[in-house]
């Protein structure tokens, strides 16, 4: 459609909005081409058990390399993929590629490390996600319980009745379900308690200043308590420093994820992380501020 976008057609848009619209169109058609050319890559970030320092799973994060070593971040192209009706093939790719890596690990005797895939709100609503997940696991010949899913609050709160139904189907496959970016969307606690979910992921924005901002510290403590009262596992995202790690461990957070341990890495490097020993969970030396 980009070639029809010139002339007077957009004259009622303010210039920044017009730029925004044409950037979206350009990105949308680049996405279409990238889907056809199989340009996407999955990277994997470890989730670390707060007690043992052992890797207790990974999160699959999509990457769109640009040839020059740079890549377009998913925060930029996933929303465009959703708005331009292109999220389904991208979501299917993420699931299939992750299931394939789990198959490879299984052949190496590593069959107890689950990988979580992010499922977009649209994918969760429009598709028969449970069947898609089951099919991907079957195609790779892996136990479905090795696949986990991460969903945002908006993904489940939009239509709670339907969400409960879908979540039950996914749960019946033995898959773990996490609520991603918890605390940034709007969650009805009444619904939350009825959802068959397993895990809350504390959003990185609360974790960032946890050691210095009493408000963020209080929010994180409240989420940890809420999770445990609801019998859910709780994981902190975006852990970047030893001080954040120490605070989270001291306050009962079950799992930790973030660049302090490792960013998302390639298949080979993820395997390397698994073969290395546990991470050190030692607190920072006293007197440091990081
Ligand atoms: P998310 O699911 O909340 O993923 C966490 C994001 O935080 C990832 O960004 C990750 O690379 C980043 N991160 C991890 N540790 C740290 C840290 O210590 N500090 C900071 N500053 N950031 C950290 P990424 O990979 O850019 O992905 C952004 C978002 O894009 C994801 O947020 C998720 O919502 C979406 N996304 C990524 N891959 C997929 C996918 O395959 N399918 C769908 N539907 N969405 C995806
Ligand atoms: Mg996620
Ligand atoms: Mg998140
Ligand atoms: Mg996010």
Q: Globular, elongated, flat, extended or rod-shaped: what is the shape?
A: globular
Summarize the amount of helix as a percent range: 40-55%
**Strand count, sense and closure of the main sheet?**
8 strands, mixed, barrel
The rounded Rg comes to 20 Å
Question: Cα distance, first to last residue?
Answer: 50 Å
Any ligands, ions or cofactors bound here, and which?
A: ligand C2E, magnesium ion
Strand content: 15-25%
Strand order of the largest sheet: 1-2-4-5-6-7-8-9
User: Taking all residues together, what is the mean pLDDT?
Assistant: 91
Given the helix and strand composition, which structural class is it? Answer: alpha/beta
Please provide the ordered H/E string of secondary-structure elements. Answer: HEEEHHEHHEHHEHEHHEHEH
Protein name: Diguanylate cyclase
Domain EAL: 24-278
